[in-house]
Amino acid sequence: MLSLTIPRAALRSAAAPRQFAAAASAASVRFASTKTLRDAVAEIVPAKREELAEIKSKYSESSLGEVKVSNLIGGMRGLKCMLWEGSVLDADSGITFHGRSIPQSQQELPTAADIGRPGKEILPESMLWLLLTGKVPTKEEVKQLSEDLAARGKLPGHIEKIIDSFPKTLHPMTQFSAAVASLNHDSKFAEAYSRGIKKTEYWEPTLEDSIDLIAKLPAVASRIFFNVFGKGDGNQTIDSSKDLIENFTHQIGYGDSEGLIDYLRLYIAIHGDHEGGNVSAHATHLVGSALSDPYLAYSAGLNGLAGPLHGLANQEVLGWALELRGEVGERPTDQEIQDYLWKTLKSGRVVPGYGHAVLRQPDPRFTALSKFCETRPELREDSIVQLVQRLSQLAPPVLKEHGKTKNPYPNVDAASGCVLYSYGLDQFKFYTVLFGISRAIGALPQLVYDRMLGLPIERPKSLSMEALKKIVAN
């Protein structure tokens, strides 16, 4: 565990440990013509450091725009003040991962079929590799990474006991966050830092912790699922021949649903990174900037994700859609749907699943999930999926006419929960835990970049209202 009492001089004079490098090689299974993920990340370190040094040297005094009072009191929305390598979100073109759109990623990244598993969708392992390295992995590299994650996925006994001690009535996200924080008992970064590792090497044990955590998240989630809802095998069984999500789906008792397995692969992959300004990603980065280990940093991110304005949104959408279906029936007319939309708006409520803090076009993640629904007969025929698809056509004109929504188009939450519900995964409180498994593959790679580039602790300047008024009055 991280010690808070070791003198700094002792930290700096101690020999840097190498146990994390040994753990990496022991946990990985090499293929003859492939590199490990650690090797792939190590290759980009010099170039990334040189790129940042060039930016500091040439552009430190360049302006990125003015800070207005509306930014300060409006949640800092839109301020360009955070470095984030994995993805960029544009108001019109949507999300890109190291320059690749979601459709491009679906075309280029290895799928389940590419590593010999049933299914057609991209693997979260493929997205993880891309977010960490900026490069598309080979099929062999993804298979190797998948096997590495399986080898790391078993929970320590003391973590199982901690999870089992939680009351069933404790919200699954609270359990999830607490269990993730507890995993820092075995943090390689915390141990290396306490022994005096060089600052230039911080990224290495951070990477090891991040891969370990991503590997264990499905087991944490499935044990919580079993304890709270009584479903799954209760043992977090891991089969090294299966990919990360295939194992997880078996662990929660849905392993016979090929459609749900493939949907969760896509869901986890495209939910992973959404640039750094969202609450869960930013909280992880902020806490990590204090050199907290990845377990503590991501636990903070999960606490932000648990908020109703962030990760809980998809279950709110599903709840509203079920209310709509309950009132107008399974086969409503367009007019009945439009009338219900107006009823919601006139009551002072928002239509959940529409609008976005940045996007001014339909969310490409919604588009990807909708296209998935079109490929599966069982989803095309499902009444709640059909209703959500019709809403995506009927709601924007109503919202435009209402005039209070900057972006009247569906976001990803408009579709994600309804598909889970259609496949029988109807435990609403667990939906944000699924989101938490996903967001790790975006937030944790950035933590590796933060350490790779030696970014400082984050500490913005705050003002009181009195101080603010003095500034703007002059």
Automatic annotation (TrEMBL):
GO terms for biological process: carbohydrate metabolic process; tricarboxylic acid cycle. The keyword Transmembrane does not apply. Pfam families: Citrate_synt. NCBIfam families: PRK09569.1 (NF007128). SUPFAM superfamilies: Citrate synthase (SSF48256). It is found in: Mitochondrion. It comes from Malassezia obtusa. This is Citrate synthase. GO terms for cellular component: mitochondrial matrix. Its main location: mitochondrion. Keywords: Acyltransferase, Mitochondrion, Transferase, Transit peptide. It comes from the Eukaryota. Belongs to the citrate synthase family. The keyword Ubl conjugation does not apply. GO terms for molecular function: acyltransferase activity, acyl groups converted into alkyl on transfer.
